[in-house]
Amino acid sequence: MTATSELRSANPVRAALRRWPTAFGIAFAVFAVWGMASGVELGQVVAASGFVYLGAAAVKRRGAAWPMFAMSFVAIGAADFTPWGDQFGTWALLGLAALLALYGLLRGAARPAEGLPLQAIAMALFGGIAAAVLFIGGDLGAYLVAAGLLGHAAWDVYHHRRELVVSRSLAEFCFVLDTLVAIIIVVVTLQG
Known about the structure:
This protein is an all-alpha fold and 192 residues long. The chain has helices at 3-10, 12-18, 20-33, 43-59, 65-79, 86-106, 116-136, 138-162, 168-191. The model has no long low-confidence stretch (mean pLDDT 91).
């Protein structure tokens, strides 16, 4: 063991600070499922997961992922103040994603392929899951949300390892959030 690695392992505060995205993901997962009646109401989180990546790709800035996350959080929160509830959050995120994709195309973000083109495909998939859940509902809808979140967790790992599209901190945070919320949805749904 080198002197540097001994210092790092001896300083738990420094080690914990390096894992702030994980801690934030855990805290946000608890917040997301607080008061959850069913997993279906979290379908908009699946739309938000695709939206964040698409938004960062559209503006061609990895650092834009966190502001995109904040924007998705506002859209989901605003849904509670509308007569349409969760449906508003999902449709608002899908509409915003379409506008961002158009913006990205107009700004020449069609390259590289793992940027806007791949993120648009992923948004169509994750957004499609979120929209389908609005019509399916029930336990099947909850399991579909969980599957969508686990699929996005794999997406997070891919982007984190390759350092693509979004900041590593966002990918780590999102992986933890998606995975924990998916597990909680499955457990709650199984318990009835």
